[in-house]
Each structure stands twice: as structure tokens, then as C-alpha cells.
Design a protein that fits this description.
With 407 residues, the protein is α/β, with parallel strands linked by helices. The chain folds into two domains: 126 residues, no CATH class; 172 residues, no CATH class. It has 18 helices and twelve strands. Strands 1-2-3-5-4 form a five-stranded mixed β-sheet. Strands 6-7-8-11-12 form a five-stranded mixed β-sheet. A two-stranded antiparallel sheet has the order 9-10.
């Protein structure tokens, strides 16, 4: 559907920060953004705007391009609603909501009609730009006279402003203050001013800081749990790869030692002379203190755990045994190729009998009875080099953490 663009557009599905929409791009992501995570500065504003404008029944999609000759415009097909964005121009729009500023400047895509009023309230800079561009009362009058319903809408707006009670006004002020605080936090998170902000936050009293930290932690945990409740039957491996890349701390909860994500889609060896057969593990996690790595392979919550019954016990599914052999092969490859791989890496890491974690299946989805669970536990507990955790067990850990913070 993107015939006018490079035939080999790269693609991923955005996580929470990109509103779970399709993203295509025609440039070296790491070179432009200095990282390989599935997000970019102020991307959430842009993704949310495209998603809100997307017609019902179609896939909201972003096409990010470095082409100077590209037109900022929507491309609508039977299945997709894609919006072309010149990424250099977008990143050069310093604004609370640069997507509003960007599209206003481009003058080729109308802002979402249903959200214009909210955009005005949330973005005083946008209002200032419109006023400075020459908006006058005569222009408002011409707009209102051009359609009967517009005049009625304007009349209702004025009347509603005259009859607002003091209580409603107070609530509106509180709501506006909260919205501004949220927008400010988003802006801090998606710009390069994190360190100065953190140093300033350190001046806040310890009690207030603990309260803020707890609130933000609860919000993040709730979002992850909502995602699980909504997507627990999602059978897309790519989807779960993207979600766990966006929230790497979720997998960290499984390990007892202090680990952080070291790499995702990491090459661990196995490439033949004809450049085929490479082994790519989903995640490498690294102990922050010892620098030893752990291999993490993920499947989906719909991966089958068990198969048929055999003499009063249940056999393990071929999907699961295949996944175990897969991650054990990755383990062998990274041990065998450690010196070659580490010499080419700028980040130090060690590989000594690396632990392997396989995240697959769900007790809830498979609706296992006690006998089936026992068969699975007997098998799992006897594994030497691979630990298996199901998706519902993983998110149960997050629920426990959420319960502690909410107390």
C-alpha cells in the first residue's frame, strides 16, 4: 500500500508509548534516535493522534520518512489509515504536543475534529499560534454563518460558559492542573532534559518523593495488568516481543539477582559461510554487578503446554519441547562463540553456564486441571538448564507487586 516509498520499509508494532499502532520507516532507526527501542521523542502524541483520526475498522499506521520530497498526508486503503510524517521536521517542533504543531504547520491534514476543543485547552501554544496567524472575530463570524449548526454550536458554547457554577469551575481548574501535570511528565520523559529534571526533583522532601514514586509505580503496573487482561489470548509472538521490549522490567521480576536488559533479538552465532542459519535469541539480560548474561526466549500465552495422556500422566506438547531445544541451542551457540562475539561488542559481558528462561503458555488459557498441572510441574522441576514460566505466572508476579504498592 506504500508504493511511493522504498520497497523495503522496516516495520514494527508500537508498544504502549506508540499506542500499539503499525510503524513503518525508511531510515536507520539507531542512527537517527541513538537507540533501538520501539519509541522516539514525543512519538506518543503522534501515534495517539493518528489512532484517533483513523476510521473505524482500519489499521492506524505511521510512515516515518527522511525523504524531503514526501508529502505530509494520509494514505487510506481498504484496510489501513496511514499518515506520512517527515521525521526530521517532526522532531524540530518544540511543543507540548508537537503533533498538533506539526500538522498545523504542514496544513495538509486537519486535526481530529472531535478533539479540537481539548487540543486548544491543553495547548496554549497552539492557541497563541492561531491568534498570531491573524484569526479575528470577523473570521469566526464567517465560519459560524457558513453552516447553521456552527452558529448553534457557538451559541451553546457561550451559554454554557455563562452558566457554569463555581463548583464546576473549581473542578475544571483541578482537571486542567492534572492534565498539565501529566503532559509535563510526558514531555520530560520524551525529551533530553531528564537529568536536569531529576536533579531538581531531588530537592523535594523524602515523604513527598516517596508518594510520587508510589503513585507512578502503581500507574505503570496497572497499565501492564490492563494490557495482560486485554491481550492474554493474543497469539502473536511479535506482539509480545514488542511489549516486553517496551517493559523490560517485567521479565526482571523473574530473577533474584539485579538484571537489566542487555539486548533484544540478539545474535548468538550459528551463521554459515553463505550467511544463513543465524541464531537469534529474543532477549539477553545482564547481571549489573557480575555482567553475566541470561538468555530469555518468549513464545505466546496460547502456546500449548501439554498434549495427550499417557498411562495416567500427560505428555509435554511438541511446541514446548521444541522451544526448550531452541533456547538450549542458543545457549550452546553463545558459549561456543563468546570470544568472537564479545570482542566485537562495545559492552562488556560474561558467559559462564548461562541460565535460560522460557516464557510460554498459560494455565488459565489452557484450563489445566490438577492432574495436568502436576504432570507439568514434574517435567518443569526436572529441567536442568532451562526455567519455564507461563505468561499468567509472570503477570501474577506483577499483580503481587501492584498489591504491595497499593497498600
Amino acid at each position: 500500500m506504500f508504493e511511493n516509498y522504498h520497497n523495503e520499509l522496516s516495520h514494527f508494532i508500537g508498544g504502549d508509548r506508540l499506542a500499539y499502532i503499525n510503524v513503518y520507516y525508511d531510515f536507520d532507526w539507531e542512527q537517527v534516535f541513538n537507540h533501538n527501542r520501539s519509541t522516539f521523542p514525543n512519538g506518543k502524541y503522534l501515534a495517539k493522534r493518528v489512532k484517533s483520526e483513523c476510521p473505524k475498522g482500519k489499521e492506524p499506521t505511521l510512515i516515518l520518512t527522511m525523504r524531503d520530497d514526501a508529502k505530509v498526508m494520509p494514505i487510506e486503503t481498504e484496510t489501513h489509515y496511514a499518515v506520512v510524517v517527515k521525521i526530521k521536521d517532526y522532531l524540530n517542533n518544540p511543543s507540548f504536543d508537537p503533533s498538533a504543531n506539526y500538522f498545523a504547520r504542514a496544513c495538509q491534514i486537519p486535526l481530529t475534529k472531535s478533539s479540537i476543543a481539548k487540543d486548544f485547552m491543553d495547548n496554549p501554544e497552539l492557541v497563541t499560534q492561531i491568534i498570531e496567524s491573524g484569526l479575528s472575530i470577523e473570521m469566526v463570524g464567517r465560519w459560524a454563518r457558513s453552516a447553521t449548526e456552527r452558529g448553534l454550536q457557538l451559541k451553546q458554547l457561550v451559554e454554557s460558559m455563562d452558566t457554569v457554577s463555581e463548583d464546576v469551575e473549581n473542578k475544571a481548574h483541578i482537571s486542567a492542573d492534572l492534565d498539565s501535570a501529566v503532559d509535563l511528565l510526558k514531555w520530560f520523559a520524551e525529551t533530553g532534559f531528564v537529568e536536569p529534571v531529576l536533579s531538581k526533583i531531588m530537592e523535594i522532601g523524602i515523604d513527598e518523593l516517596n508518594k510520587i514514586s508510589s503513585v507512578l509505580g502503581v500507574i505503570n503496573l496497572r497499565r501492564v495488568m490492563e494490557l495482560w487482561d486485554r491481550e492474554k489470548k493474543n497469539s502473536s509472538e511479535e506482539y509480545w516481543q514488542n511489549q516486553l521490549t517496551s517493559n523490560p522490567w517485567v521479565i526482571s521480576q523473574v530473577f533474584s539477582d539485579p538484571v537489566v536488559i542487555f539486548a533484544d533479538k540478539a545474535y548468538v552465532g550459528g551463521k554459515a559461510i553463505d550467511n544463513t542459519g543465524s541464531n537469534i535469541v529474543d532477549f539477553l539480560y545482564k547481571n549489573q554487578i557480575t555482567t553475566h548474561v541470561k538468555l530469555v526466549e518468549i513464545k505466546t500465552p496460547t502456546t500449548k503446554l501439554l498434549s495427550s495422556i499417557y498411562r495416567n500422566v500427560f505428555s509435554i506438547s511438541t511446541e514446548l519441547t521444541g522451544s526448550i531445544n531452541q533456547v538450549l541451542n542458543y545457549r550452546e551457540e553463545i558459549e561456543k562463540n563468546f570470544h568472537t562475539l564479545s570482542s566485537a561488542s562495545t559492552n562488556k559481558y560474561e558467559v559462564i553456564n548461562p541460565r535460560c528462561l522460557l516464557i510460554a503458555g498459560s494455565f488459565e488459557n489452557e484450563q489445566l486441571n490438577d492432574t495436568q498441572k502436576k504432570s507439568f510441574e514434574i517435567f518443569r522441576s526436572e529441567l536442568k538448564n532451562v526455567e519455564i514460566i507461563t505468561f499468567d505466572e509472570l503477570f501474577a508476579k506483577i499483580q503481587l507487586l501492584l498489591g504491595l504498592l497499593e497498600q
